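COURSE: Structural Biology Practicum
ASSIGNMENT: Worksheet 4, Part C
STUDENT ID: 0417
INSTRUCTIONS: Below are two proteins. For each, the amino acid sequence is given first, followed by its structure token string. Answer the questions at the end about the second protein only.

PROTEIN I
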Amino acid sequence: MAGPLDGVKIADFTEIIAGPLAGRLLAEMGADVIKIEPPWGEPWRLNQRFTPTESRGFMVYNRGKRSLPLDLTKPESREILGRLIPQVDVVLANFRPDVAAKLGVDYPTLDKINPRLIYCEVTAHGRAGPEADRPGYDMILQAMSGLMACETKMDNGVPQQIWSTPLIDTTAGFCLAWCVCGALFAREQTGKGQKVETSLLGSALALLGARFLNVENLDRETRHKALQDLEEKRASSASYQELLDASPGSRRQRHHANVYYRVYLTKDSPISVGCLSEPLRRRLLDTLDLTDIGLEPGYNPNTPEALAYAKDLEGQAEKILIKNTSAYWLELFESKGIPAGPVRFVEELFDDPQIQANGLVNEAEHRDAGKVKMMGPLAVFSGTPMAPEISSPALGEHTGEILEELGYSGDEIRRYKDAGATV
């Protein structure tokens, strides 16, 4: 059985992470995704590569695609696009505005060739506003969106990025794929294509959740004072910690006691415990034989006495958890209905029975690297299963077959390759 997007053809012009991830997600749903990149390959192929044309990053974000390298500065490549674009349903792009128009792959140009085309692009800051043409990457948008400040991590007084994952790029990739699905549905109803825009900035703000919310009646004075304090402290060359202290919205929310939602050390390895409702919190207290007066109605957690009490309660819990193994506590917490889990390492995940049982690890044979395991599909469709069985493409691996599908003869394909239009 074919995937839910079987029959959809996509021309993916994107590079690095966000756009390529969107293409991969759509390929997993059955779309025929043709990756169009320069004959020398997109930058992520060459970033810490371990084969002549591929890196781990490229393999992860480009699984399931076919490769068609094109030098878009050559007229021969324009001819190929002129035959390809009328046959595709979706274009994915992350060009700068001037570059897209210069190469003839901007929306107005392609819309004339194929009015049913869905043109989806992801930019750093959006197409409007004073920073529309500014380049941007995940770390830069972490800084500009407030995410970095909200994380409150510092090293020698310098704010630190969230580096364990390209958080904003990944979210933007999901957003772009989501937009494609919505636009395809709209076209089914109207028969018309359209341009869809999303941005790293928008994805970053979405990740802020409730922090990016201003209730005017409640927050007007607090926000006004914070803006004044920030302006004054910047003018006086205050430290970053002082700036952070001036921004209530960026500081972590204070809990009465960090007993209920945290990581604990046990006798052998750490575990995480999460109790976000009062019934769960009381269940944890009962299990550990602890008492928390902070759960009493009207209790003020911000007094010096309350803070000292909370610190002492945390210490009591830590001393209890350290006495037994993680297996002991996880079994006990499960029997009590308390949410908890072990702290695992990436190397352990490929063999994890829960991950395997839900198809969240996929295995494919790579022409150069051999057997490759990576993230499997994130969803299960009962009627149109997602089954990505091919790995990321070698540079130009599918040039011949794609051009043959477009009606080119062997002699024509060789002529395009000799002209340097493709490889």
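PROTEIN II
(use this one for the questions)
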Amino acid sequence: MTTAALPKPAEEFLTWLAVERGRSANTLTAYRRDLQGYAAWLAAGGHRLDTVAEADVARYVATLRDAGRAPASVARALVAVRTLHRFLADADGAPDPAADVAPPRVPAGLPKPLDEEEVVTLLDAVVGTAPVHRRDRAILEVLYGTGMRISELCGLSLGDLDLDGGLVRVFGKGAKERIVPVGRPARTALREWLAPGGRGAMVPARWARRHDAEAVFLNQRGGRLSRQGAWAIVRAYGIRCGLDGRLSPHVLRHSCATHMLEHGADIRIVQELLGHASISTTQVYTRVSTERLRAVYDAAHPRARGRAS
């Protein structure tokens, strides 16, 4: 589906998302892409935003389905459209044509965490004391030890760390701030990275950007490590450990949450740790843990599958 320039009300909506709601650049890019597709479809049908009816929005969803878009992709596009029309309705006092259009059902995809032995193998794969090795070890330890998102890790600044207190300040989605505990292995890895032989050795003679000087994690050019750069680091160690195709920063986040729940953590504590706005988002990890519990039961109990003692 082709894209189109956005009408002024849609641009105002994106500005509102950025300024009033604190949405990230990645979220704004996704909204813009979905709304451009919607604007192109409206233009092709001779519609304007202020003349759209509920039936039009429903037809647009059907068009996306007929084009072979995955249910999750259709649902995401509809979220953008519904949020736009709700914004316009609130601003103008007009009816909201998208309010009652139901999104397609998205099959629940269960995360596939690493087991604890695989995590140990991964963390032990970083060998060496060179600055890059210290950085990579700290990245893996922090991702697994705190469950933070890769964007949150790359956004860390030196002032966010309290290693003596074992805490780190994290800015999550919507610029929401939370305080996260940092375990002893991750603190040790961070101290080694922040020592003169680690981060200090990667500091450039002159900072290319002013804010890079405060970044916890640097790339080899001395700038703030990007999300893509951190992703590549995680993937490289996954390949080294035989986890190619299975490992990503988000899998480490899944693994952190799942292992905590398996060891008895309260689900609301895990919700706070991960920065989930809703407990329902965290509950997906309880289903994973239940599956593992059943697998262990089936393998270990003499009568789990009808076997006699």
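ANSWER KEY EXCERPT:
Q1: Residues 271 and 281 are 8 Å apart (CA to CA).
Q2: The two ends are 62 Å apart (CA to CA).
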